[in-house]
């Protein structure tokens, strides 16, 4: 992202989530605040069908962005049933989880670059979404401090387990930065877990998939947020387990389609080679 500017890809992801509420029936991921938080002008364009995020050509990416949020929150509910009471959103963007309803004693930590977090808090104020007392903002400039530093300042309980959601972030980081964050989560209390998405190397794409991915890569690079890392699925699962995670599950488009999109009449489904990885300490 550009210096002192909020993330443009965070806005794009929010627009996909908002469009999903309007055009995909039934939604895989229900978010009653998604249209509100993108702002009135953007919501108007989506409702009118003039915004590309709501168009048919965006269906595959829209499905993936909706699915990664749904899967992560499914994992969170299961973890809460096991007694986990901390949820960390790494690169929270315009995620609305903390603002939808009380969550049975859950403490939500929103970690993001200071500029993006300030932009989100301004947006929340503009659309009259109140910040509840169970959410703590943890602005972290990763060029100057560590995730541990930011969480310590936010009074995160390092003795207790937590669920980490890390969505729409890893492709923009170097491999070393990705593995360092995973190593940090692996060092936390037993029962801690993380869900993150990642992209496969370009050579694994073919035909229309490759063309679509290259076009998307060009768009994000032009916005100042180029893709930096790609992972081979089997190698990544092996490396994640080597860090100390006792469980690591990789889900590709086929697995996610079978779980969330079976039997739909509208054709909504994941079409690319994006993956979700769920790992537990």
Description:
The chain has one domain: 3-Layer(aba) Sandwich (Rossmann fold), CATH 3.40.50.150. Strand 1, helix 5 (97-100) and strand 2 form a beta-alpha-beta unit. With 281 residues, it is an alpha/beta fold. It is built from eleven helices and seven strands. It starts with 7 loop residues before the first helix and ends with a strand. Helix 1 crosses helix 3 (40-48) and helix 1 crosses helix 4 (59-81). Helix content is 43%, strand content 14%. The protein is globular, with a radius of gyration of 18 Å. The chain has helices at residues 8-23, 34-37, 40-48, 59-81, 97-100, 114-126, 147-153, 175-186, 207-222, 233-242, 253-260; strands spanning 86-90, 107-112, 135-139, 163-166, 193-199, 247-251, 274-280. A seven-stranded mixed beta sheet has the order 3-2-1-4-5-7-6, sandwiched between helices.
Keywords summarizing the entry:
281 residues; alpha/beta; 7-stranded mixed sheet; 11 helices
The gist of it:
The chain is α/β, with parallel strands linked by helices.
Total domains: 1
Name of the CATH class:
Alpha Beta
Return the CATH architecture.
3-Layer(aba) Sandwich
Helices and strands, in N-to-C order? Answer: HHHHEHEHEHEHEHHEHE
Helix amount: 40-55%
CATH topology: Rossmann fold
Spans with pLDDT under 50 lasting ≥5 residues? none
Major sheet description: 7 strands, mixed
Shape type: globular
Topology:
Blueprint: H1 8-23, H2 34-37, H3 40-48, H4 59-81, E1 86-90, H5 97-100, E2 107-112, H6 114-126, E3 135-139, H7 147-153, E4 163-166, H8 175-186, E5 193-199, H9 207-222, H10 233-242, E6 247-251, H11 253-260, E7 274-280
Parallel strand pairs: 1-2, 1-4, 2-3, 4-5
Antiparallel strand pairs: 5-7, 6-7
